[in-house]
Write a structure and sequence with these properties.
Strand content: 15-25%
Number of strands: 16
Structural class: alpha/beta
Oligomer: single chain
CATH architecture of the largest domain: 3-Layer(aba) Sandwich
Number of domains: 2
Radius of gyration: 22 Å
CATH topology of the largest domain: Rossmann fold
Bound molecules: S-adenosylmethionine
Length: 404
């Protein structure tokens, strides 16, 4: 592997595209980066790998935030950064993202923290978080992984679990058959000892992002959209996303290696008492829509345990996977138990003003640990989460508790 400076790479010709280059904790092929984009300044070599990610060629690679997810804080990172850095300081020992979802918050605070910890109760989120936050060069041969992704993209659809249950509904029949072929092939590579556990995590992550892009949904899987088979546009009206009809194609995750982070999968209330961290960020669900109901298809693709599915929306039995934070009767007690058990110096909590735990309860719970203040930012959103596409303003709030 070449150790090479960015200046040199930007001058290389496309013929070098099979060479893997190393820049600090990033490895990439020449065409993964759009060196010709305006403002790409490499003159003084001060660009960080985090900055490099702004210039990735999204035709070839994808980043952690390239995904729609209910409640994702991707657009709110500048606000969170301002609040958290001002209160907790510019460099933290450790940062724990306890309800990490996509993982974008943990990923963002990597640059401000000795290590980040991320946890989510969904296997699909755990898989993605592990790929992006916890890869090390020892466990990943990126040249091999890139070539395996090409091989997986050349497979033909087969009849299997996904095509039987999700073909013609959540995905086209062809794409559901490709999910079967690709996911089975990944397990076979692992069974034959051809990939490490971490390489498998990267390949499954690639499949999750590719499948999600081609899903016939409004961004979550509580239901699929009617009209599969119709034209994307009919009589000037948008009927179905054109991506649904495109053959799914895996890209490579753009990985920054550091390996020192910790990624967990489980109930935060069980995990929290076992950790000691400087800063905790909590972004629990705030309404009674269970995340497992909204992401059951991605969960199935991740675990590939092929459970029986039921009803029109093809969900598996999710008893035992429901979150206490999405139940009015249990949410406040769960938050209280969690906040009480945290061993940390700073707690930041994002919570919507229309959430099922009242502001009074939140303040009382946090004040139990230390002085608490609220930061607010108003921002525009489209829709109300129920298919309405009207623009409106919502207020994002972060509660900050400086622990005694
Ligand atoms: C609002 S989302 C977090 C979004 C995330 N901050 C982001 O930017 O992508 C809440 C997350 O909490 C997870 N979750 C719900 N209950 C949980 C629990 N008891 N323990 C751990 N994770 C939980 C859900 O799976 C969901 O991903």
């Amino acid at each position: 592997m070449n150790q090479i400076m960015l200046n040199d790479i930007s001058n290389l010709q496309d013929s070098h595209n099979n060479t893997l280059f190393t820049y600090k904790n990033a490895d990439f092929f020449r065409n993964d980066i759009q060196f010709n984009r305006p403002f790409f300044s490499i003159e003084n070599q001060v660009i960080s790998p985090f900055d490099l990610k702004k210039f990735i060629n999204t035709e070839r690679v994808f980043d952690i935030g390239s995904r729609k997810y209910i409640g994702s804080k991707d657009n709110l990172l500048p606000f969170l950064e301002k609040v958290i850095i001002e209160a907790a300081g510019g460099q933290m020992e450790s940062f724990f993202d306890g309800f990490s979802g996509t993982g974008v918050v943990a990923e963002h605070f990597r640059r401000y923290s000795g290590k980040v910890l991320a946890n989510d109760c969904l296997v699909s989120n755990y898989t993605v978080n592990r790929a992006f936050l916890n890869s090390s060069r020892d466990e990943i041969d990126m040249i091999k992984t890139a070539s395996l992704i090409e091989d997986l993209n050349n497979l033909e659809p087969v009849a299997g679990y996904a095509s039987r249950h999700f073909g013609g509904t959540y995905f086209t029949r062809e794409n559901a058959g490709l999910i079967d072929a690709i996911r089975d092939a990944i397990d076979k590579l692992e069974a034959n000892g051809q990939i490490t556990g971490q390489e498998k995590t990267l390949l499954v992550t690639s499949l999750l992002y590719a499948a999600d892009k081609a899903a016939n949904t409004a961004g979550q899987y509580d239901a699929y959209l009617k009209g599969m088979g119709r034209e994307s546009y009919e009589n000037g009206r948008h009927r179905i996303d054109a991506n649904v009809y495109k053959r799914i194609r895996l890209k490579r995750p753009f990985i920054l290696y550091d390996g020192g982070n910790e990624v967990y999968h489980g109930d935060i209330n069980t995990l929290a008492p076992t950790l000691q961290v400087e800063t905790v960020y909590l972004d629990p669900p705030y309404n009674s829509r269970q995340y497992i109901d909204n992401y059951h298809v991605l969960e199935n693709i991740s675990t590939w345990e092929k459970p029986a599915v039921f009803g029109k929306t093809r969900k598996f039995n999710r008893d035992g996977l429901k979150s206490a934070y999405s139940r009015r009767a249990t949410a406040a007690a769960a938050l209280k138990e969690l906040v009480t058990s945290l061993k940390c110096r700073h707690i930041f909590l994002s919570y919507n003003s229309e959430g099922i735990i009242s502001d009074d309860d939140i303040i009382t719970i946090l004040e139990g640990r230390g002085r608490t203040e609220i930061f607010e930012k108003e921002y525009p959103v489209f829709g109300n989460g129920a298919g309405v596409s009207r623009k409106r303003n919502v207020v994002e709030r972060v509660f900050y508790c400086k622990c005694r």
